[in-house]
Design brief:
The structure holds two protein chains of two kinds. Chain A is built from no helices and eleven strands. By secondary structure, chain B is mostly beta strands. Classes of the chains: A mainly beta, B mainly beta.
């Protein structure tokens, strides 16, 4: 299996621009998670989906952030407008949700720098 | 709010030595995960612990879970340089009644350096 696939791997953008991060979960997985990692705050859960439905978005920092999962094979995390403090590594992860306790697999991450 | 605390946060040790990383968490959960992260890389799953008393071992690493004490440990036996990495523990909040993974709350990580 190809694993969780994220794009772009690296992005540098100017403050105020829109950023869209993309994720393809592992085929057959029905839970998808978006995390953000920074030195200061560590790994934070932003939002997660089950069967394409957002279950908990309480970790989304503010209205500038939005996430969608239009089908089982694709999710996006959008930041509009971007700010320098959004600079971080954004990880997408997926798992098979049956009774819990299944391994959650992480993608390689999208390294975002907002200047 | 679930809090997950790891200690130590930084650990430098010599090859061949044994050491333990501790992970305490603040609310009831019986799903505890350990991950490894190399610099600039993704998170690699090491162990998933699902019940009180669970113990899992892979090579020189052994993880255990005590849900009553809300404590998990990651023990390193006869450390080798290749084990140098950052190790994270993470706890499933288990808030969603529908079952399955609920999203993990991570500790700050233990940055482990093993010197030859």
């Amino acid at each position: 299996d190809a694993g969780v696939i994220q794009s772009p791997r690296h992005e540098v953008t100017e403050m105020g621009q829109e950023v869209t991060l993309r994720c393809k979960p592992i085929s057959g997985h029905n839970s998808l998670f978006w995390y953000r990692q920074t030195m200061m705050r560590g790994l934070e859960l932003l939002i997660y989906f089950n069967n394409n439905v957002p279950i908990d978005d309480s970790g989304m920092p503010e209205d500038r952030f939005s996430a969608k999962m239009p089908n089982a094979s694709f999710s996006t995390l959008k930041i509009q407008p971007s700010e320098p403090r959004d600079s971080a590594v954004y990880f997408c992860a997926s798992s098979w949700r049956t009774g819990g306790g299944n391994t959650i697999y992480f993608g390689e991450g999208s390294w975002l720098t907002v200047v | 709010e679930l809090k997950v605390e790891q200690n130590p946060l930084f650990l430098s040790m010599q090859e061949g030595k044994n050491y333990t990383i501790y992970c305490n968490y603040s609310t009831t959960s019986d799903r505890l995960y350990w991950y490894r992260q190399d610099p600039g890389k993704s998170l690699e799953s090491l162990f998933v612990l699902l019940s009180n008393g669970a113990v899992k071992q892979e090579g020189r690493l052994m993880a255990s879970l005590d849900t009553k004490a809300r404590l998990s440990t990651l023990h390193i036996t006869a450390a080798v340089h290749d084990l140098s990495a950052t190790y994270f523990c993470a706890v499933d909040r288990m808030l969603y009644s529908g079952g399955g993974a609920d999203g993990l709350t991570f500790g700050k990580g233990t940055h482990l350096i093993i010197q030859p």
